[in-house]
Amino acid sequence: AFEHILYSVESGVALLSLNRPKSLNSFNESMHLEVREAFKLIRKDKQVRALVITGEGRGFCAGQDLSDRNVDPNAESPDLGLSIERFYNPLIKSIQDLPMPVICAVNGVAAGAGANIPLACDLILASRSAKFIQAFCKIGLVPDSGGTWFLPRLVGMAKAKELALLGDSVDAESALAMGLINRVTEDDTLREEALTLAKRLAAQPTQGLAYIKRALNQSFDHGLHAHLELERDLQRLAGQTKDYREGVAAFMEKRSPDFKGK
Ligand code: T3D
């Protein structure tokens, strides 16, 4: 059983909820390790075809637990690079590399790494009262967890610089308007809407969706020619799935498809 997260699976959807509400679900090492453990379960469990990440309490995640950092002037500087290498970078890679859709349901304030973890997910829903804060600049740090990579791609360089250099709070409606997130929901329906969307995705051709995710995630790293080759390779693989056959057969027979995710 987990202490710092909640984890459950229902109707093909895994729900991972950060559960340190007293410190707005900020990350300590134990929570990182539990999240890592949950990702292992997700990858092993053949039932799971979509993931929802959210948080307990009034916040989504306030980034690193700052009470774990000794900033006494006489103490040696902590090696934050090590923390990024051991914990935050692997988490971002796990989300991006998970071969199924990941929905982030941002249920309240999302600050520091907590504002960037959602950006690594495939779809972002936020409750009306959610806020996104690139809090790093306020304590002399650099946006991590992919923030300086995702932000310019999502909102353009001008906005990215404004968000990262000023660290102002962005409300959910503004985040939607600038293309940072996908949808805004009422506070009390966020989780339900995220789970409904995840169940819909979990009933789709999961392997096909994994290839779509891979193609889009790699698109910024390639020129057009290289990317056309990747699309060719992925289409070759997609054409070998059972769900592709089922999709075409169902279309021709004018019935609903029954996808197995393989
Ligand atoms: O160190 C490394 O490994 C490097 C990696 C860094 C990654 C990062 O994420 S760095 C950025 C760290 N995060 C922040 O700088 C955000 C700090 N938090 C805030 O600015 C504010 O708490 C919020 C804007 C997120 C929310 O403000 P508000 O007014 O709604 O709530 P609050 O009263 O500030 O917080 C509520 C409680 O949560 C409070 O505790 P208390 O007084 O009730 O006992 C507060 O101390 C605690 N809390 C909030 N954020 C953190 C935290 N405790 C520890 N670490 C936090 N990050």
From TrEMBL:
GO terms for molecular function: isomerase activity; lyase activity. It comes from the Bacteria. Keywords: Isomerase, Lyase. CDD domains: crotonase-like. This is 2-(1,2-epoxy-1,2-dihydrophenyl)acetyl-CoA isomerase PaaG. Its EC number is 5.3.3.18. Belongs to the enoyl-CoA hydratase/isomerase family. The keyword Protease does not apply. Pfam families: ECH_1. The keyword Lyase applies. The gene is paaG. SUPFAM superfamilies: ClpP/crotonase. Signal peptide: none annotated. It is an enzyme of class 5 (isomerase). GO terms for biological process: fatty acid beta-oxidation; phenylacetate catabolic process. It comes from Marinomonas algarum.
